[in-house]
Automatic annotation (TrEMBL):
This is N-acetylneuraminate-9-phosphate synthase. SUPFAM superfamilies: AFP III-like domain, Aldolase. Keywords: Antifreeze protein, Secreted, Transferase. Signal peptide: none annotated. Residues 294-353 form the AFP-like domain. The keyword Transferase applies. Its main location: secreted. It comes from Pleuronectes platessa (European plaice). Belongs to the type-III AFP family. InterPro entries: AFP_Neu5c_C_sf, Aldolase_TIM, Antifreeze_III, PseI-like, PseI/NeuA/B-like_N, SAF, SAF_AFP_Neu5Ac. One of its GO terms (cellular component) is extracellular region. Its EC number is 2.5.1.57.
C-alpha cells in the first residue's frame, strides 16, 4: 500500500508532496447556496486545496424519533432537530451547482458522506475522494461499502480508540489501498490539552504505509501548524465568514484571514523541514569562511617535527588551516616546512595528510 497516492486528479499526497489543506465549509453556509459559493471562492483565495461540505440523506442518517425531537438551542434553525437539519441540507441539484462553481473557481470539491445513501450520491457526483467523518469511523458496514467503491478515502478518528483504528485500517485496507487517517478530537471548540498531537506519531508507527493527517477544531492556527511539523500530510479545518453566526461550528472555525495565515505558515514550515540530511549548506559558507575554526600552531614547529597534540590548538585563523575536527589526524605526522607560532597549520605542510580543508 502506498505511502503516497493521488488524492485528487493531478494532486499527490504523502511523501514529500505538499500538505493537502481542506477548508471544511460543512454546514457553516447557513443553508444559503450563495453564501456557500462565497465560501468556496474564499477557500480558493486563501490558498486551500479543497472546499468540503457535509452531505446527509436525513432519513438514512437519523431515525424518526431523532428527527422529531425538540431542538430549542440558540443554534437551532427549526423547532425540531429534523427541521433544523433540513434547513441546512442542500439538494442534489444544489450540490451539482456547487461542484460546478468549485470547478470554475479552480478548487477541488468534495463532501463527507454522513450515511450510506449520501455516499452513493457523492459517488454518482464523481467527487475525487470520500471523507469519512468521525461519527462513521466505527461504522464498519459503511466503511466497507465506501472502500469498495475504489475512490481515495480520508478517515477522521474522533471519539475512537487505537484498537478501533486498527480495525478501521484493516477494514479499509482490504478493499482500498489509497486512504489516509487523520488524528481528531471531536470537541467544538477544542482545548489544547485535548488535542493529543502525539497520536500523529503513534499512527505513523502503527500505520507506516499510509499518510497521516490532522483534523482540528481548536481556536487559532498554531496547533495545526505544529501538526505539519510532526508530519501531518493533510490538514482539515472548519472555515466561516463570521464566527458570530448561528451554528455550533462557527466558534471553532477559521475566518478568511486565519485560513490565509494557516496556509502561509504551513508552506513556510514545509520549506523549513528540509531533507533530514545533516551537512554544511551553501548558505552557511559565508559564516564558515568568517568564523569557522581550524588548526593553528600553539608553538613554533620546525620542519621535520612529528606533531603532538600539545603543539596544536584551534582558532579562527587566516588563512584557514586543517579543519578543527581533523586535529587528531595530524598527531604522529611530520611537518615538511617550518610553522611559526600562531600560524595556521595548512594541509600542504603536513606529510601524508590527504584530506583538504573543508569549505
Amino acid at each position: 500500500m502506498p505511502l503516497k497516492f493521488e488524492l485528487c486528479p493531478g494532486r499527490m499526497i504523502g511523501g514529500n508532496h505538499p500538505c493537502f489543506i481542506i477548508a471544511e465549509i460543512g454546514q457553516n453556509h447557513q443553508g444559503d447556496i450563495e453564501i456557500a459559493k462565497k465560501m468556496i471562492k474564499m477557500a480558493k483565495d486563501c490558498g486551500a486545496d479543497c472546499a468540503k461540505f457535509q452531505k446527509s440523506e436525513l432519513e438514512h442518517k437519523f431515525n424518526k424519533r431523532a428527527l422529531e425531537r425538540p431542538y430549542t438551542s440558540k443554534q437551532s434553525w427549526g423547532k425540531t432537530y429534523g427541521e433544523h437539519k433540513r434547513h441546512l441540507e442542500f439538494s442534489h441539484e444544489q450540490y451539482r451547482e456547487l461542484q460546478k462553481h468549485a470547478k470554475e473557481v479552480g478548487i477541488y470539491f468534495t463532501a463527507s458522506g454522513m450515511d450510506e445513501m449520501a455516499v452513493e450520491f457523492l459517488h454518482e457526483l464523481d467527487v475525487p475522494f470520500f471523507k469519512v467523518g468521525s461519527g462513521d469511523t466505527n461504522n464498519f458496514p459503511y466503511l466497507e461499502k465506501t472502500a469498495k467503491k475504489g475512490r481515495p478515502m480520508v478517515v477522521s478518528s474522533g471519539m475512537q480508540s487505537m484498537e478501533t483504528m486498527r480495525r478501521v485500517y484493516q477494514t479499509v485496507k482490504e478493499h482500498n489501498q489509497n486512504f489516509a487517517i487523520l488524528q481528531c478530537t471531536s470537541a467544538y471548540p477544542l482545548e489544547a490539552e485535548d488535542v493529543n498531537l502525539r497520536v500523529i506519531a503513534e499512527y505513523q508507527k502503527e500505520f507506516p504505509d499510509i499518510p497521516i493527517g490532522y483534523s482540528g477544531h481548536e481556536s487559532g492556527i498554531d496547533i495545526s501548524v505544529a501538526a505539519v511539523a510532526l508530519g501531518a500530510k493533510i490538514i482539515e479545518r472548519h472555515v466561516t465568514l463570521d464566527k458570530t453566526w448561528k451554528g455550533s461550528d462557527h466558534e471553532a472555525s477559521l475566518v478568511p484571514s486565519e485560513l490565509t495565515e494557516l496556509v502561509r505558515s504551513i508552506r513556510l514550515v514545509e520549506r523549513a523541514l528540509g531533507s533530514g540530511i545533516k551537512q554544511m549548506l551553501p548558505c552557511e559558507k559565508p559564516c564558515h569562511d568568517k568564523l569557522g575554526k581550524s588548526v593553528v600552531a600553539k608553538v613554533k614547529i620546525p620542519s621535520g617535527t612529528v606533531l603532538t597534540l600539545d603543539m596544536l590548538t584551534v582558532k579562527v585563523a587566516e588563512p584557514m588551516g586543517v579543519a578543527a575536527e581533523d586535529i587528531y589526524q595530524l598527531v604522529g605526522k611530520k611537518v615538511t616546512e617550518d610553522v611559526k607560532e600562531d600560524e595556521s597549520v595548512v594541509p600542504g605542510v603536513v606529510d601524508n595528510y590527504g584530506k583538504r580543508a573543508k569549505c
